[in-house]
Specification:
With 274 residues, the chain is an alpha+beta fold. The protein folds into 2 domains: 6-149, Fructose-1,6-Bisphosphatase, Chain A, domain 1; 158-273, D-Maltodextrin-Binding Protein, domain 2 (3-Layer(aba) Sandwich), CATH 3.40.190. 38% of the residues lie in helices and 24% in strands. The protein has 7 helices and 13 strands. The protein has helices at residues 6-32, 40-61, 92-96, 175-185, 198-206, 220-232, 257-273; strands spanning 66-69, 73-75, 83-90, 103-111, 118-128, 133-138, 142-145, 148-149, 162-165, 191-193, 212-216, 236-238, 251-255. Helix 1 runs antiparallel to helix 2 (40-61), helix 4 (175-185) packs across helix 7 (257-273) and helix 5 (198-206) runs parallel beside helix 6.
C-alpha cells in the first residue's frame, strides 16, 4: 500500500468528522419523512453544519489555503497556495428522501505556476458515511479504497458495460441533449444507472463497478475529487469533445481507455444527429 500522506490524513479526518454527523442526521431525516413540514429545512442545516465542520478542520491544518465550497462559495487563500474544493453533502436529494447514498467530497487544486488561474488537482477524498468507505487518490500515487488499490474495469465492449449517468432535472442540464445520448447509448450497453451522487459515480468508475459515466451541468465540487480518482485508477476523464481538463464539470465523460473512446464516439454521434 502507498503510504498515506499528511494532506490525505487531514482531508480524511475532516470528511469523517462531517460524515459522522451526517450519518446521525440521516437517522433523524428518516423519521421526518412522515412529518407535515418535511425534512427540507433540517437537511439544509445539516448540509451547512457539515461544511462548517470541514472548514474548521481544514482551516486549522492549512490556515493559508483557499476554499471553493458549495455553500460558502470561493474564499481566497494566500497568494500561490492551493485551495480545497468541498462538497459537504453530494446527493442532497437522496439524503432528503431517506435514500442512503450520499458522500462528502474534498479535493486539493494547485494554482498554475504562471499565476493565470487554477491547475492540476493533486489530492482527493470521497467519503461515504453510510458504508464507512473512504476513496482517496493523490496525483502519481494511485487511487485507493482504504488500503486497497483501485483499477478501472477491464471490460472493453459496450454490450457488457454498466454505465452511470445523471438525469437533468429542474433547470439543471439539457433534457433534450440527455435524451439523444440515452437513445443512442442504451441499446448498446448492458445497463444504465442513475444513483444521484456524481462523486460516488466517479469513485465507482475508478473501482471498476461501473465501466463509464456521463453527465452535464455539474459544478467543480461535484467532480474534482472523482476526476482524479478515475485518472489515478487508470481511466480517462474528458468533456464531450474529448478535451481533458483538470476538473470536468460542465460536461463529464469517464471510463477506461477503450470504453472512453467508444462512449465519446456514441455521444458525439448522438449530438451531431440532433
Amino acid at each position: 500500500m502507498s503510504a498515506i500522506s499528511g494532506i490525505i490524513r487531514v482531508m480524511e479526518k475532516a470528511a469523517r468528522k462531517a460524515g459522522g454527523r451526517l450519518r446521525r442526521d440521516f437517522g433523524e431525516v428518516e423519521h421526518l419523512q412522515v412529518s407535515r413540514k418535511g425534512p427540507a429545512d433540517f437537511v439544509s442545516k445539516a448540509d451547512q453544519r457539515a461544511e462548517r465542520t470541514i472548514w474548521d478542520e481544514l482551516r486549522a491544518a492549512r490556515p493559508d489555503w483557499g476554499f471553493l465550497m458549495e455553500e460558502g462559495g470561493e474564499i481566497p487563500g494566500a497568494e500561490g497556495k492551493p485551495r480545497f474544493i468541498v462538497d459537504p453533502l453530494d446527493g442532497t436529494s437522496n439524503f432528503l428522501h431517506g435514500i442512503p447514498h450520499f458522500a462528502v467530497s474534498i479535493a486539493v487544486q494547485e494554482p498554475k505556476l504562471d499565476g493565470s488561474g487554477w491547475g492540476e488537482v493533486t489530492a482527493g477524498v470521497i467519503y461515504q458515511p453510510v458504508t464507512d468507505e473512504t476513496y482517496w487518490a493523490e496525483k502519481t500515487r494511485g487511487a485507493w479504497l482504504h488500503d486497497r488499490r483501485l483499477r478501472v474495469s477491464a471490460r472493453r465492449h459496450l454490450d457488457e458495460s454498466l454505465i452511470a449517468t445523471g438525469i437533468p432535472f429542474a433547470g439543471r442540464g439539457s433534457a433534450a441533449e440527455w435524451t439523444r445520448i440515452y437513445g443512442a447509448l442504451a441499446p448498446q450497453v448492458a445497463g444504465i444507472r442513475r444513483f444521484g451522487a456524481a462523486s460516488l459515480d466517479l469513485a465507482w468508475v475508478a473501482s471498476g463497478r461501473y465501466e463509464g459515466f456521463w453527465e452535464s451541468g455539474l459544478a467543480p465540487w461535484d467532480t474534482a475529487a472523482g476526476c482524479l480518482l478515475v485518472r489515478e485508477a487508470g481511466g480517462f476523464v474528458s468533456d464531450w469533445r474529448g478535451v481533458s481538463q483538470p476538473i470536468c464539470d460542465a460536461q463529464v465523460l469517464a471510463g477506461n481507455d477503450s470504453l472512453h473512446s467508444r462512449l465519446h464516439k456514441v455521444i458525439a454521434g448522438a449530438l451531431k444527429a440532433g
